[in-house]
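Please, structure for the following, as tokens.
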Amino acid sequence: MSVIVLALETSCDETSAAVIADGSKILSNIISSQVDVHCKFGGVVPEVASRKHLELLNLVVDEALAEAGMGFKDLDAVAVTYGPGLVGALLVGVSAAKAYAYGLDVPLIGVNHLEGHIYANFLEHPGLSFPFLCLVVSGGHTDLVLADKHGSYRVIGKTRDDAAGEAFDKVARTMGLGYPGGPLIDRLALSGDPSAIKLPKAYLEKGSLDFSFSGLKSAVINHLHRAAQRGKEVDKADLAAGFQKAVVDVLIDKTLEAARETGVSTILLAGGVAANARLRADLAKRAGDESLRVMIPPLVLCTDNAAMIACTAYYKYLRGAFAPLTLNAVPDLKLGEDRYEGNFRGTLSRCKV
């Protein structure tokens, strides 16, 4: 008998609901983006994001169920992102999920947003096996994660300042490109020469698997300021290409170094920046040169979506890792730090465990 999970994702500026069967079959994955709303502000405004989630969530859930051909009575569990993210945005999803789970008398499953990004790869590759190394790159996170089984993770490298996606957004804004910065720089870089403008690459102390992008961001800003003071025109395509290459090269270098150190032969890419064309292509090529297997989700599963949350929840469902109805939003939740797992085991009547 199939396990049907309804999942909600409201951690930032996408309102998403998805219905997934058995952790791999996507019956629906509805995403309502707020990019146009926040574009004029140059970034996400938390209060605005929360209010838009309130407006959209019930509509998105209804659409997800309709597209899946399901009703509420068909659900075996309700899952929700409860951290990390914007606290107000998270609370909208958590409150709705708790109400659905209580009303339907089905298990509630809280999911770490970063874990969800990792599990987007399981949707594309259901037979994925452990151990593996995952590079999680998004607007708020840049982490190298070693996973040896479901629910067991070790962060072996992380950013010490800006996340990669954050650096893309800040540089794009400085260059006058707009928001969100990642896709805009990726597109502009296609017509630029990545070797025309030399920019620094931060590798930190020897043996470190951590990242740092604040110096690179400052170098781009200083390059633009110096050009303006001299009355010179900057080739923005070259600058975008050089900046992107500096970010991507460090991401890949550190990932391959981590693979060599751990002996892991499978590398996963996850998070919004995983949609970057150069990162996807260069990682696949360079890892392939070292006989490493690379798995990358399709573009729609790289950015925030509820399908990845439902997939993660399925594996939690199998081990009975249900959340109490006192579940709360945890904006600074760390990967592998589930606040309730191991402390609560559901016994609701419809559980098929």
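The chain has two domains: 4-118+302-318, 128-298. The longest strand covers residues 25-33.
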